[in-house]
């Protein structure tokens, strides 16, 4: 079975996103790490370009919703978005 491709990024500093990316990688997922200071539109565009199934945002739930909105605008509302925990 192929690993899920997950985009991991942050609207702010990328320290937390790096930790999340490592954890998901260690769980067997394929990670596309885009770092920090990413806009919701940048995260959405990367998810579409990389054919990701999920985006994990190291930010608040309002930022996650903005990524969802950007994905819907790109016709990619099937990509799951979640704030990091």
Automatic annotation (TrEMBL):
It comes from the Bacteria. Gene3D superfamilies: Cobalamin-binding domain. One of its GO terms (molecular function) is metal ion binding. This is SDR family NAD(P)-dependent oxidoreductase. The lineage of its organism: Bacteria, Bacillati, Actinomycetota, Actinomycetes, Propionibacteriales. InterPro entries: Cobalamin-bd_sf (IPR036724).
């Amino acid at each position: 079975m192929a690993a899920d491709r997950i985009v991991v990024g942050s609207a702010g500093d990328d320290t937390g996103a790096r930790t999340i990316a490592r954890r998901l990688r260690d769980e067997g997922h394929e990670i596309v790490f885009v770092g920090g200071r990413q806009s919701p539109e940048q995260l959405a565009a990367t998810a579409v370009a990389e054919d990701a199934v999920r985006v994990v945002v190291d930010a608040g739930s309002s930022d996650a919703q903005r990524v969802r909105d950007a994905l819907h605008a790109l016709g990619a509302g099937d990509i799951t978005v979640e704030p990091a925990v």
